[in-house]
Design goal:
Blueprint (H helix, E strand, L loop, with lengths): L2 E4 L4 H10 L4 E3 L17 H16 L3 E10 L6 E2 L12 H11 L7 E12 L2 E13 L15 E3 L11 H7 L1 H16 L1
Parallel strand pairs: 1-2, 1-3
Antiparallel strand pairs: 3-4, 3-5, 5-6, 6-7
Helix pairs in contact: 4-5
The protein binds inosinic acid.
């Protein structure tokens, strides 16, 4: 079985991706004894995900993939986008990020948004990128407690529940990261 490192410290994402990639051993950073911080200081999802994958490949010498995701809100000209993790200032404070987004959109009837993920794969010395988009709308208040990040305030197109109310299997099948990972899986299967 081929093993590939997933350059993330997020256990939720590792679990989601391993479920979608049963034929590959997805190794965590911990499993390859990497404990440092991974830089992501660019202004696009494409550059950030490549920066993360390159950093891990350079440090471990292993094939690797990395993802970068942003929530792009139409009424806010695509914000928070690449800054989604630190929209309210402090990195990874989901509660504060959601509060800020809901207040920015207060009274605004345009609730259209999309999650966009870019996955960068470094495989056998070559680099490949895959994009996944999930369109939807932003609620006016938080609903549900599953998932992470902005899940409680995002309703995917065609559903009436937020990502935080839907089962992980449903989210995986339709989510930005699920779609980008599916493209990664299709690509990897063609290499076999
Ligand atoms: P990352 O690039 O995957 O770390 O994503 C950046 C930020 O986007 C995260 O800190 C979350 O706030 C948000 N995010 C990414 N993926 C999801 C998701 O599947 N649901 C909700 N929020 C997400």
């Amino acid at each position: 079985m081929r093993a590939i490192v997933f350059a993330t410290n997020n256990a939720h994402k590792l679990e989601e991706v391993q479920k979608a990639l049963p034929s590959i051993e997805v190794k965590s950073l911990k499993a390859v004894n990497f404990e440092g911080e991974i830089p992501e200081d660019h202004e696009t999802l494409e550059e950030n995900s490549a920066q993360k994958a390159d950093f891990i490949t350079e440090h471990t010498g292993l094939d690797c993939f990395a993802d970068d995701t942003g929530l792009e809100v139409e009424a806010l000209n695509g914000a928070p986008g690449v800054y989604s993790a630190r929209y309210a200032g402090e990195h990874g404070n989901s509660e504060a990020n959601m509060e800020k987004l809901l207040s920015e959109l207060e009274g605004n009837s345009n609730r259209n948004a999309q999650f966009r993920t870019v996955v960068t794969l470094n495989l056998d010395g070559k680099q490949h990128q895959f994009e996944g988009i999930c369109k939807g709308t932003i609620t006016t208040e938080k609903q549900g407690d599953k998932g992470f990040g902005y899940d409680p305030i995002f309703i995917p197109e065609g559903y009436s529940k937020t990502f935080a109310e839907l089962d992980m299997s449903v989210k995986n099948a339709i989510s930005h990261r699920g779609l980008a990972v599916q493209k990664l899986v299709d690509f990897l299967n063609k290499q076999a």
